[in-house]
Amino acid sequence: MLLIGGWTLAASLQPAGYDPMVQSISSLAAHGAADQWLMTGALFLLGVCNIVTALGLRAAALPGRITLAFGGLAAVLVSLSPEPDGGTSLRHLTATGVGFTALALWPVLAASGNPVTWALKPRVGYVATALMAACATWFLVELHGHGAAGLVERILTGVQSVWPLIVVAACLAARLRTAAKPRARETVMAGGERSERTMARSERNGSECGERSS
């Protein structure tokens, strides 16, 4: 959400002629872009968030967490390697390529053999990675064909930036459900004990009434 908000706001501040359907996100952080710091900051914070998520997401498999952290580090490097005005650089292209690859691979590598939530199931990881790989292929086609590369890049990076949030939310929901089960069991057991005491009391009262009658 941070990245999506960043590119939306940054695009709105560009002079007339900027076309988000064609031009890349990186151009918003390039030298000479209007309010360059905005997109640069969004990319940097996204990378930091991914690194922090990788450190805290202990329910995920270790290879996936390492790959996510690597993708976060690549995003930080992208933010520190702005494109020159009207062109690009090898360092920027390398960091971007590594970041795209890492963030596409981490869902399948994070899948656990004993997942605590649906988002960490192997089948879901394969689907997420396949979707990101398909978007990356589409982006390359549009980039070389001078088509809607900007739009496709936003779809790809949007999916990659939102997926960690989805996994974290699914893990928290699973933890809350797990924590609620013992409380529900204790409530049922307490209710059963109260019922047994009530029945025992009723039986005693019945016996006492019978003894008085006799």
3D architecture notes:
- Helix 3 packs antiparallel against helix 4.
- With 214 residues, this protein is mostly helical.
- It starts with a helix and ends with a helix.
- Helices cover 74% and strands 0% of the residues.
- The model has no long low-confidence stretch (mean pLDDT 84).
Quick summary:
The protein has 214 residues and is mainly alpha-helical.
Mean pLDDT: 84
First-last Cα distance: 80 Å
Structural class designation: mainly alpha
Low-confidence stretches: none
Rounded to an integer, what's the Rg over CA atoms? 27 Å
Net shape: elongated
Summarize the helix and strand pattern as letters: HHHHHH
- Beta content comes to under 5%
- Sheet with the most strands, sense and barrel status: none
* Number of separate strands: 0
What is the helix content?
Answer: over 70%
Tally of DSSP helical segments: 6
Relevant terms:
214 residues; mainly alpha; 6 helices; elongated
How are the SSEs placed, and which strands pair?
Blueprint: H1 2-12, H2 36-56, H3 62-79, H4 90-110, H5 122-144, H6 149-213
Helix pairs in contact: 1-2, 2-3, 3-4, 4-5, 4-6, 5-6
